[in-house]
Amino acid sequence: MFMMLSLRQAFITTALLCSAALGQQQQTTEEDKVCSSSAEECNNSNNNLEETIRLGLEWFTNPDHLPLIVAQKHGIFTSFGLNVQLIEPSDHWEAEEEILAGRLDVAVTEPLHLAQDAAKGKPVLGFSRFLHTDGGVLYDKGKGEIRRPADMCGKTISYPGSPGPGGPAIVNTMVKADGKLDCDITSYKKHNGSFFHTDALQSNAADVATLIFWNFEIPEAKAKGMRDAAFFSLKEWGVPDFCQLVLMTTPSHFDKRKDVLRKLVLAMRRATGIVHQQPDLAREYYYQHVHKDDASETQQAVIDATFTATLPAFPNDNMMSTEYYEHLMGWLVETDQVDGKAGEEISVSSYWTNEISW
Asked: What's the Cα-to-Cα distance from 307 to each of 12, 174, 265, 280, rounded to whole Å?
């Protein structure tokens, strides 16, 4: 039965069908350009426009990428003289390596990963924020075992990257913010459920799951039968709010293509205006893009719910402050997620710029 599958897997399947939509009649003069599996597959695709940007998504196409989809469907990229190719990874990739190898120009990432990569000495430079949602730690309120962050002390945490330090660092910061200062960080048990957060909780493999975006994971969990799905928000319990998506490239690539990247920022900003001012049109574009009509009833419910939850998450301001990244890096150092010396010595200006995001 479908309910036994991960809705994320189903969403991936639906999203990958988008490549079959190329050539379909659209309400725009611009053809969809969505490639899957690897950046290399896009290299030989249609390249008639003046400037091509190969943009790597952080994962499968979903409502978080709405400004990119609207900019394609509405012909905005074309009006800026851009040929933007959205590339879905078949698996995790190191975006900066893809850019250095000439297979990508830009990639989507989160501030958390941008700061972590910078502390490792990787050549990364973020230049525009386009999504800011809410998120944190998912739990099943209906079980009654967890009512407040302090109740998570010593629980089993599911998170991608387990058994690394990230999961306990997030949860224990929340526990302390709730007033429980004596929780030993080694008391937490770890489970690597990847991004299948709901499955981990429903199978009792974990008590909580972290690194979730509420606009996707909460609707998904409820559709899978977790009626009392709830979450503790990072921003409310002492953790830097990194539930955001940004565009990044390498410093050298930024210097070479600054003017083109500025056009990308402006095109996405115009698309964001359509998302806010004409949400029904944005919805139509998105449903076409993910072939909603071909999805199962349960998938359609998830598509509807996640789209609606994501609509308010696109800011008009694409800039981020130096103070934000200093605080984020300080937390990463404090929780032993990055090398202390590297984190303290690195300058924010080496991995974030507002030069073209104003």
From this structure: 15, 28, 22, 11
When pLDDT is averaged across residues 247-272 and rounded to a whole number, the result is 98
**Distance between CA 3 and CA 9 in Å, rounded?**
11
Work out the pLDDT band at 94, boundaries 50, 70, 90.
confident
Q: Residue 41's pLDDT band (boundaries 50, 70, 90)?
A: very low
Residue 15: other Cβ atoms inside 10 A: 21
Closest Cα partner for 107 from 5, 260, 246, 304?
246
Rounded Cα–Cα distance for residues 323 and 276 (Å): 28
pTM of the model: 0.86
Mean pLDDT along residues 95-106: 89
Average pLDDT, stretch 191-212? 95
DSSP notation for 263-309: HHHHHHHHHHHHHHH-HHHHHHHHHHHTTGGGS-HHHHHHHHHHHHH
Q: Rounded to 10 degrees, what is the CA torsion of 166, 232, 6, 3?
A: 160
Mode of pairing for the β-strands spanning 229-233 and 135-140: antiparallel
Residue with tokens 């930024």: 254
What is the rounded end-to-end Cα distance, in angstroms, of the chain?
49
Please, how many CA atoms are within 13 Å of residue 7, restricted to the half-sphere of its CB?
A: 26
